[in-house]
Amino acid sequence: QVQLTESGGGLVQPGESLTLSCAASGSIHSINFMGWYRQALGMERELVATTTSGGSIEYADSVKGRFTISRDNVRNLVYLQMNSLKPEDTAVYYCNARGLTGYDVVSEFASWGQGTQVTVSS
Fold first, then answer.
1. pLDDT of residue 32
2. Is 118:18 a contact under the CB 8 Å cutoff?
3. What is the reported pLDDT for 104?
4. Which of 7, 38, 52, 86 is the most buried (most CB within 10 A)?
5. Angle CA(102)–CA(106)–CA(111) in degrees, nearest 5?
6. pLDDT in tens, 67-103
7. Angle CA(84)–CA(22)–CA(115) in degrees, nearest 5?
8. Which helix (H) or strand (E) holds 3?
9. Does residue 17 contact residue 85 with C-beta atoms inside 8 Å?
């Protein structure tokens, strides 16, 4: 099993910055995908930013130029630096990771974190 733990959410004013962190732990063989998604109240969960072990990065159009995703492959961490935050960025942010779990016998995994609340309000 692979567990994801997010941290760094909070209440900020418009224009301010926030950094989210996500740590993966457990029986990790390899992680080939890590990403951030968000779900606003009454809305469906949507992609924010993703990164692969091969270095591919994808951003939602709404966050391009403001958010930056980065990854520490050695420590199995992924970060989301969020700048110039807007009220419409308010949501619960979820970390997602996919890869292989186990040691002698490996299998695929796809895990979600518990979510961290980001509120942007004046």
1. 95
2. yes
3. 85
4. 38
5. 65
6. 999 999 999 999 999 999 999 999 999 999 999 999 8
7. 80
8. strand 2-7
9. yes
